[in-house]
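Troubleshooting: if your tokenizer reports a length mismatch, compare your output against this known-good record of 583 residues.
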Amino acid sequence: MSAPVPPRDDRGKGAMALSVVGCAVTLLAALLPAEGLTLGDTVVRISYPEGWRAWLHPDPPQIVIPRWKPEDVSDLLALYDSGWTAATAMEPAVDSLAVPASAPDSAAAMDSTATGAAVAALAHGTADTAASIPESVLPTAPPAPTAQPRRAAVQVPEAGALPPALRLSIPESAQWAFGRLFAQLEQHGEVNVLHYGDSQIEGDRISGIMRHSWQKRWGGSGPGLQAPVPLVQSFALRQSHTGPWKRHTRYGRRDTTDTDDRYGLMACYAELTDTSSTACLTVAPEPRNHRQFGQWQGLRLWHDSVAADCAVAVNGVAVDTLRAGTSASALNLGAAWNGPSTSLNADARSPVSVATEVCFQGGVPRIFAVEPKGRGVQWHGVPMRGSSGTLFRKLDRPHFTGQLQALGPELVILQYGGNVVPHCKDLAQAERFGGWFGSQIRLFQRVLPDAAILVIGPSDMSEKSGPRWTSFPQLAAVRDVLKRTALENGAGYWDLLEVMGGLGSMPAWVDSEPPLAGPDHVHFTPLGAKRVGTLLDRSFLGCYSEWKQDWAQPAPSAMPKRTTSPVVPSALRAPVLETDGLR
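Known-good structure output:
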């Protein structure tokens, strides 16, 4: 007789089943993304205790950034200065004109603590509608300088001796374009540099340092293109206006009343809200800045197509009439108004231009830019507050490309990225920005196939995190994407973040004595911008040295030029009101 089977103990079955279900749920929670999984129109999420979050979805390891001190910045800048001294001591100064270096500019440079005080109102003349211009009312030119115009000797550094952070990254496919730029500079002819940027170059900061250095070294005068009604007064000259002018910009907050994208070369324009009275634009030299900025011969007015006749007077003298039906163009007032003569690269005894007031009566078209026309190197600073640098393809294509070709810059600088960094959440957004920015570079290459293009990335930027200021999380990602995009598209790159010292350096720039950056931990002070501009100039000279010493000089037919696409014709390619041969 068999023994009875003992009853089965099921007391642990429930606990075992619960453990299996718990493990399965935990595994699913770990595999599912934190934001859930979308199945059709349904989002599936698994809720779990908050304490599990760090275990199931750990944050990526944080980059520990060493704390910078103000003395670290001083040491870094001193290292740059000593490196520059050593690099230039290896090579003699080169002066292609074989004349002594010019005497120091006696005009005081802009005070580094200046904040752009309001410009005093200038006297205004009365429009003269006479058909002829009597010589007695023309401005009297100051006496010609007694000394021969001189240029400073070129200090050619040994490129290999410069710190790595100061070297421009130039891909092989772009060396021919930068070589062409340097060759034209050596010829001391007219060279246009179009420097686009965000608020870091507002007020002619950085761009003004570069203009002064290049004009002194290669020869030149004039302040470059100016917005007719600037948002911020430039340090390069003084501007004022009378009449109901309204400023429009394609960057920042766009005016909803704009019905088209004809914003012109500077992505802004000014128009009159009431044309029944005379309206004027005035430019004058800035006596606190470099003297050659105030030396120009006449003006060019970049304007839109003309709907009704518009009389133009300069300093109270009628000089021209824009006729109805005139295409968008550049009106050269230098051909009709004989303003004060200036020297190409004059010293302290050379004359400067007088205040120039241009008045309009009648159907005033949109005014895109005012250009006091200098000579030699023309460095045009175009600040766009709040811009990410991705707007150029949004501008009216025939109109914008026509103005670009009419100016014909040999170098285009795109200094952007700072307005993207605070809003960039992850690497995917940084990559999308890189794609948009690459299309802007290719647009400039199609329109200006011979121009060199340089991208300047963002500086270090900080946000408040508890009691400390820390770099924005995606700053390095935006910088890396911008640099890769530039080099892959045949443009050069200058790494401003590394020049400053890298991530975490901005608070030390702010705390330096005197401060090199503002309390917002984003923008440079005028003194900090001066240091950045000086370092950029040295980087260009290092690249110039590489071109002279190391780069191959292929025949023009062998240069690997970019492929170009057809450009839509525009009236601006041959400005209808220019007859003196100026581009």
